Amino acid sequence: MASAREEAEVTAKLASEHGVSEEAVRVVFDAMRRGGGTMAQFSHAEFGGMSQWSSGMTMVGDMFNDSLKAKLNAIAGELSRYLREHPVEHPDADRAVSYRSGGTRHAGSWWPQELGNPSSVGSQNDMRYAVFPVKRRLVIDDHGQTTTYDTGDHQISGVSQAQSTDSTLTFVSQRGVVRVSDLARADSSEPRRS
Fold it and tell me: How high does pLDDT run on average in the chain?
C-alpha cells in the first residue's frame, strides 16, 4: 500500500508533466480509487466539467477538445497503473461514490442493500441506475420498478439514453455500447419505499 507522501509525489509529478493543477489530479485519483483503478467518473473545471475514463474510452466535458482528452487519458492511465501496483488495502476504500454525496451511503438507498455501495449512480429522465462492478450488477429503477441485471464481464464506465420512445438506457463498457436489453436479468422487485 502506498503512503500519503508517495501519492502526493505522484500527484505533483503528473500535474507538472501535464500542465494541470495538483487538485485536478487529486480529483482524478480519488475517482480512480472509487472505480477500482479501472475507471473514473468525476467533475473538474480543468477537464471541462463532467468527465469519464476507462481503458480505451476517455470523455471530457469539452467533448471536442482532443488535446484535453489526451491529457486526461495520460493522467488516468498512469494513475490506473499506479493503483494496480499499490492496491488499496483498507475496507472502506470503495465507500465514496461518483455523482453522489457521501452522506447517503446506505440510508434511504433504493437499490438492494446486499449489493453494498455502487461505483456510480445517476439518473436520466425518470430512470435511476446504480453500478456495482464488484458484484457484477447493474440496478435500474424505472418509475418505482427496480430491476437488477447481471453485467457479466462488462466493466461499465458510462451511460447514455437512447433517443427513442422507450427511453432505453445504454451503457459503455470496455467492449463498447451495452444495451440493458442485452443483459440477463438477475431479479426484479416491486416499488421500494425510501
Answer: 77
